Amino acid sequence: MGVIRVTVSKPEMPQSELSAQPRRPTMLLRTLWRRFIPHRCTLCRNIFEGTGALCGDCRSDLTDCSDSCRCCLADLASSALDRCGPCLVRPRFFRASAAVRYRGAAQALIREFKFRNRPRLAHTLALLMVESRLRQGGYLPQLLIPTPLHPSRLAERGYNQAALLGQQCARILGVDCDPFALERRGAKTPVAQLSRRERQAAVRGAMTCRRKLNASTRIALIDDVMTSGATCSEAERALRRAGARDVEIWVFAHRALGDGDLGAEERT
Ligand SMILES: [Zn+2]
Ligand SMILES: [Zn+2]
Question: How far is the CA of 5 from the centre of ligand 2 (A)?
Fold first, then answer.
């Protein structure tokens, strides 16, 4: 995706008029700031030249999901196919996309974003999500619905990371986001270490949709990480019960077997 830079030359202004322009000193300071304050990587904090939030090293440590099944994100046996065996027979989701694999810099970004109180990273993560989603092509979603957080978890963390990602992606794409559409009920269950079957049982019936949805609206369910897909399946079912037809699963990272080990905070 190309970056378009627009340079607007400002008209010369006599020195005597400078004092009459209250915005002028701010603009000058901003120019000086941009010129002399070094650009730091959002993740490793190293100084780097160039644009964007991440330095070259952190960016090159991100692994994309181009070799994953487009309906469930499982690894593909052959690059000639875009779906895995089971999804060729019966697609698990209408569509599933992840910007990166949950390892290296991606895992570090999620740790900082979710467990170390850095909600502002949502913008960086959302840019990576939109960048990869645009690369994949196809119709873009019209309404983004984030996965809800259990109320007690929300009180603990202070923010729902999926809702922040949804809002940022919606802002970049110019579409709607409804962070209150889905509601989570029941007991808080840490599912990070459970098997797929155990996760499915733990989240069954845990979500309801508070609004009616239109079958013709292209909806994307937004989450930060998809592991077994049990939470996404449950949320997708709730959206379909409310009238949605084709629900795309759109996450920042996919954690497959063999990806980064979970730290203590990620197991909660
Ligand atoms: Zn970096
Ligand atoms: Zn699949």
Answer: 39
- Nearest residue to 175 via CA among 130, 207, 136: 130
How far does residue 131's CA lie from ligand 2's centre (Å)?
A: 22
Instruction: For residue range 2-37, list pLDDT tens digits in order.
Output: 433 333 333 333 333 333 444 566 777 766 766 667
- The pair of structure tokens assigned to 83 is 């779906």
Return the ligand number nearest the Cα of 61.
1
Q: Where are the domains of the chain?
A: 56-258
CA distance 140 to 173: 9
**Would you state the structure tokens that stand for residue 231, as one six-digit string?**
């939470």
Q: Report CA(76)–ligand 2 centroid distance (Å).
A: 8
Distance 80 CA to ligand 2 centre (A): 14
Under 8 Å between Cβ of 184 and 173: no
Return the DSSP state at 186. Answer: S
Nearest to 220 by CA among 141, 152, 147, 161: 141
So what CATH class is 56-258?
Answer: alpha beta
C-alpha to C-alpha distances, 107 to 56, 80, 81, 144, 191, nearest whole angstrom: 17, 29, 27, 23, 17
Tens of pLDDT along 197-218? 676 667 777 899 999 999 999 9
Q: Structure tokens of 240?
A: 């379909």
Output the CA torsion sign for 173, 178, 201, 107. positive
Q: Cα-Cα-Cα-Cα dihedral of 229, 234, 237, 239, to 10°?
A: -100
CA of 93 to the centre of ligand 2 (A): 8
Give the DSSP H/E element, type plus range, for residue 220.
strand 219-226
As a three-state string, the secondary structure of 74-143 is CECCCCCCCCCHHHHHCCCCCEEEEEEECCHHHHHHHHHHHHCCCHHHHHHHHHHHHHHHHHHCCCCCCE
